[in-house]
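All the exercises in this workshop are built on plain-text protein records. Sequence and backbone structure share a record, each on its own labelled line. The structure tokens are whole numbers drawn from a learned vocabulary of backbone shapes. The record below serves as our worked example for the rest of this section.
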Amino acid sequence: MVRAQSQEVVVSIAALRKSFGPLEVLKGIDLTVHRGEVVCVIGPSGSGKSTLLRCVNLLEQPTSGSVHLGAEEVTHPDCDIDSVRRHVGMVFQQFNLFPHLSVLGNCTIAQHKVLRRSGAEAMAVARRNLERVGLSEKVDAYPVQLSGWQQQRVAIARALSMDPDLMLFDEPTSALDPELVGDVLAVMRRLAQEGMTMMVVTHEMAFAREVADRVVFMDDGLVVEQGAPSQVIGSPQQERTRIFLQRVLDPTNAEPGAVDALQPPPRSAAG
């Protein structure tokens, strides 16, 4: 996908490490994301993909290293992380909607409490974003009345309603039935076309190939390879990347031993 690229750095990650007790999940990550760029992070289970994403907005506290969002070092002890998080939207594997609130309520509550928007302004913003994701007719519904793909669209609209500079997606389709995956990916594809800066942890290789400006392959807590989708997915340079993609794209013809080689560590919180 061809988009205008900016030299403005939105995310800068340097020497990032994260341990859970004796288990080191991230082992020194360096990564930069520019405004308007879509970066898809791929790799086997347990490679640290989700942990990396959660360290960007400090849902996980890094063990060492630094994360900058724009000019702000969010890993600095004096950083007002709540203020920084206002500019970062996150969509999780599970939808995490408030079950006691309507769709409109889910999309306005943070606007009220965090951005201090008036009721009328918050509702107008929420309705606009629900229309963007194709759910303008569901404003009065409650989560229990929605299908999985509809709930995930609401979660995206809720994040967009905070006017984020950056959107983080952590396996946003993994909890959906296969036939519903395309509906959520279509919304994300439109956001990319609109120029939204996005970091996406995904196992959807077709989406990464089509939408990403850059693909980052992680394994065992390290960035093994990164580059354009045509390079990383189409012609990987690293053997580890090649084995992973062979297993994902053509599992029936995977090399002997490839499955064992890509097993996650015995105990992992890496995601």
User: Anything to note?
Assistant: Strands lie at 9-20, 23-34, 38-42, 64-69, 72-73, 88-91, 166-170, 198-201, 214-219, 222-227. DSSP finds ten helices and ten strands in the chain. The two ends are 27 Å apart (CA to CA). Confidence is low (pLDDT under 50) at residues 264-269.
